[in-house]
């Protein structure tokens, strides 16, 4: 057995284990965090992104610049 074949076998085994671990971790994150939050928001009919009411090609909201004072733009944060 060649040393390069041995190293390639270990590398392939490492990739295989990494794929399994990544799948399990992402599944846990989804099941614990993302899934329940999504179900709660659907039950409460909360929509964070308002895509359904847009009739134009852009998702940017229009801003009325005339209504703000110039001092408000200096202290945005």
Describe the structure in your own words:
The protein has one domain. Helices cover 60% and strands 0% of the residues. It is built from two helices and no strands. 0% of the residues are buried.
In short:
The chain has 77 residues and is mainly α. Helix content is 60%, strand content 0%. It has one domain (3-74).
Draw up the topology in text.
Layout: H1 3-43, H2 70-74
Radius of gyration: 25 Å
Structural class: mainly alpha
Count of domains? 1
Strand content: under 5%
Fraction of residues in H or I helices: 55-70%
**pLDDT < 50 stretches:** none
Overall 3D form: elongated
- Overall mean pLDDT score? 83
Strand runs, count: 0
Oligomer: single chain
Distance between the termini: 64 Å
Order of helices and strands: HH
Count every helix, treating DSSP H or I runs of 4 or more residues as helices: 2
Largest sheet: none
Question: Features of this protein?
Answer:
77 residues; mainly alpha
